[in-house]
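Technical note accompanying the year-one report. For the benefit of new consortium partners, we illustrate the data format agreed upon in the data management plan: each record pairs a sequence with a structure-token string. No post-processing was applied to the example shown here.
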Amino acid sequence: MKKLIYVSDPQCGWCYGNGENILSIYKEFENEFQFEFLSGGMWVGENAPEGGEKTSNYIQSQAPRLMSFTGVDISDAYFEMIKDPNYSLSSLEPCSAIMAVKQMAPEAVFQFSKEIQLAQFKFGKNLNELESYSPILEKMELSVSKFQALWLSEENLELCMGEFDIANKIVNGFPTLLLQDGEELSVLASGYFNLEEMTNLLKDKI
């Protein structure tokens, strides 16, 4: 069976904008393709921007185009959160959360990724804190205690870093959707994609 590989990052605004699209693709084609979700690790370690007025103002200046193009909402609560100079726009913690859910319930990864980005960008929830994930896990009927044990464990973080290495070898940006057919790997979309166009394209690829 052919495989669709989706490479995304929780801190990526365009990935947030594409969240509903890729979830729809997963739901429609989960029986026709294998699916793999890879976290990209956009901002990790020293590369993770610190919060502050400058950071918030810059992202706020870029947001109108993204919101207009994709239809998602980035709220004032998010911009207020990232004004805090002690806040880190780190990808590692939310990517590790996705990795934990991938181990707990692989079929839930696309939904979970969408939910945590919604929590961050629309409701201003800090994805470096367990409290931001608990309501999402409960809504999705996933164990909070099991998630907590996995989330920032050494083993889970190592799995995450390994996934970043794989992702960065096959893509140059986020989000990216790829099709693997045997040994051949091709890019179907680099960046936000139109749902109807992608649906029609994938029907031809089955």
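Partners are asked to follow this layout when depositing records. Strands lie at 3-8, 34-39, 176-181, 184-190.
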